[in-house]
Amino acid sequence: MIQKMSDKQPISFSEPVRKLTRQARIECNGHVVTVGGNAPVRIQSMTNTDTVDAVETAIQVKELALAGSELVRITVNTPEAALAVPYIREQLDRMGVHVPLIGDFHFNGHTLLTDYPACAKALSKYRINPGNVGKGEKRDRQFGMMIEAAARWNKAVRIGVNWGSLDQELLADLMDENSRRPTPWDVRQVMYEALISSAVESAQRAEQIGLAGEQIILSCKVSGVQDLVAVYRELSKRCNYALHLGLTEAGMGTKGTVASASALSILLQEGIGDTIRVSLTPQPGESRNQEVVVASEILQALELRRFVPSVTACPGCGRTTSTTFQELAKDIDDFLRARMPEWKKSFPGVESLKVAVMGCIVNGPGESKHADIGISLPGTGEAPAAPVYIDGEKRMTLRGDDIVSQFRVLVEKYIEERFGRASNL
């Protein structure tokens, strides 16, 4: 028997529930990017230039920032790289790019931060890998030097543990302890424990040395989706530090994109994660910006943030043998992304716009009505006319060979009228 509507309970909405963590303040020239707490999930990226080339590195940082990266990490691995950091910051300041720079330190970070104070000052945040700061007493001393530098210059620190560069002494101790258990854990579970213990214990040592807990961000990166989910679920239970998410060595193209989206979406939906990075290996000649685009698409798909107007477009089928709707969808999407830097300043809220570009009569009118502005293009055998829907109502029908340009004019007019009013209130 079919249950009546009146006897049913309403279906619950699905939405991420954020876990409240401590909030770090990452400063750059008076501009503050908050991470954790009630701040939005932030997007981070990293350059792949030689840091010694200050101009080339500054240009790539600017490109990443314009693409939407709110924090950009650069490699600081040599004295020459440390010397270049203040000049990179200077170049960015001249271009009006106030994105915070994160120094990525391994092995010799204690020396570079001590010997090159201008570098330590110019950076807004330090990334420290506890697996690469030395062994035994040397590890404690060198880790302490880096934390003392952060406290001295009032910088945030990400303590980033990696599966591939785990503290081997800690791992050996845990393996020995595990061998004495009546029922030993799986080796992979011991690795999970080593990752989490390294991160949390390092953070606690940093606080003991004098760094404020609010200025500490943790990460435990691995390259497998299920491994990342397991580690971060447990890490979030054991601490309330802000957490940085990302698969390490996610891969190239579709593989890296899908793996990152799968892992990050599960955790973000559960309220875990305060900053994210999609570590894509660029295709030959591909812009580094692609990892920023993917990260923003993940956050927008989960409705955690909005960056650009969304374009709904059908995939096409035998009813849509013409490529017109594909060309229009791409044209509109490219057009919206290109204009967003200007529109954000003039039309607040424009990123919430929903546009539909549909290919035939089956779903075209319905999807177009659900969008703020939508067009239903003629499918195979349909009349050569394209009805346009604005705010759920059919307003006009476009005809001719220039439907693409006509619709683009309508979209821009709609943005000016709707979001221009909001800016004048």
From TrEMBL:
Pfam families: GcpE (PF04551), GcpE_C (PF26540). [4Fe-4S] cluster binds at C314, C317, C360, E367. Binds 1 [4Fe-4S] cluster. It catalyses: (2E)-4-hydroxy-3-methylbut-2-enyl diphosphate + oxidized [flavodoxin] + H2O + 2 H(+) = 2-C-methyl-D-erythritol 2,4-cyclic diphosphate + reduced [flavodoxin]. Pathway: Isoprenoid biosynthesis; isopentenyl diphosphate biosynthesis via DXP pathway; isopentenyl diphosphate from 1-deoxy-D-xylulose 5-phosphate: step 5/6. SUPFAM superfamilies: Nitrite and sulphite reductase 4Fe-4S domain-like. Keywords: 4Fe-4S, Iron, Iron-sulfur, Isoprene biosynthesis, Metal-binding, Oxidoreductase. Its cofactor is [4Fe-4S] cluster. NCBIfam families: ispG_gcpE, PRK00366.1. Converts 2C-methyl-D-erythritol 2,4-cyclodiphosphate (ME-2,4cPP) into 1-hydroxy-2-methyl-2-(E)-butenyl 4-diphosphate. This is 4-hydroxy-3-methylbut-2-en-1-yl diphosphate synthase (flavodoxin). It comes from Simplicispira hankyongi.
